[in-house]
Design goal:
The protein is an alpha+beta fold and 179 residues long. It contains 4 helices and 4 strands; from the N terminus they run H-E-E-H-E-E-H-H. Strands 1-2-3-4 form a 4-stranded antiparallel sheet, with helices on one face. Helix 1 (4-53) crosses helix 2 and helix 3 (147-161) packs antiparallel against helix 4.
């Protein structure tokens, strides 16, 4: 059996070992996050011109600190009126590593969603967030159109069905929108 003094010494030694391991883990995590951020920025340098040409703009980058750190970024849809599509054929696949391929995958998925929702009258695709980690994820953001805008769209549809487009144009000028 241990004496009280021996137990206290063993506890102090374990505490010291735990502190050293925590410091090493923190240092390793800091190093990993720095490498991930540099990797992300290098890949974005390659991908950014294609993003811009397809109506996307990088607006925010964040480091998510947890057991498995992640890079999170936000991209805005900057050109809703143009029917541009994300064209990854302009990218040299040899220049893209795992991070770059994750970014391209996210851009393709967001572009598919943007294209699907262009025809929906009640919402507008505004931006998306991507989390690059072991299991990447995409969060799509939509902005609901105002009730007035919805009514305006319904009036346009009814007027077009009746073959009177001039009336719809006049009505649209009278209805204020949120934009």
């Amino acid at each position: 059996t241990r004496t009280k003094s021996e137990s206290m010494n063993a506890l102090k030694k374990a505490k010291s070992n735990l502190g050293e391991k925590a410091a090493k883990a923190k240092s390793k995590m800091d190093e990993t996050m720095s490498k991930q951020m540099l990797d992300f920025l290098a890949q974005m340098d390659i991908i950014a011109p294609v993003m811009k040409d397809s109506g996307f703009k990088l607006t925010d980058v964040a480091i998510v600190i947890r057991v498995v750190p992640a890079i999170e970024f936000t991209v805005d849809n900057i050109d809703e009126t143009d029917k541009k599509r994300f064209d990854d054929s302009r990218l040299d696949d040899a220049q893209l590593n795992k991070m770059g391929k994750t970014i391209v995958w996210a851009l393709k998925k967001a572009d598919e969603a943007r294209n699907k929702f262009r025809e929906v009258d009640s919402v507008r695709f505004t931006s998306f967030e991507v989390e690059c980690t072991v299991s990447p994820s995409i969060k799509l953001h939509f902005s609901p159109l105002s009730k007035k805008k919805l009514l305006q769209n319904n009036d346009e549809d009814e007027t077009k069905e009746n073959g009177n487009d001039e009336t719809a144009e006049t009505m649209n000028n009278d209805i204020p929108t949120d934009k």
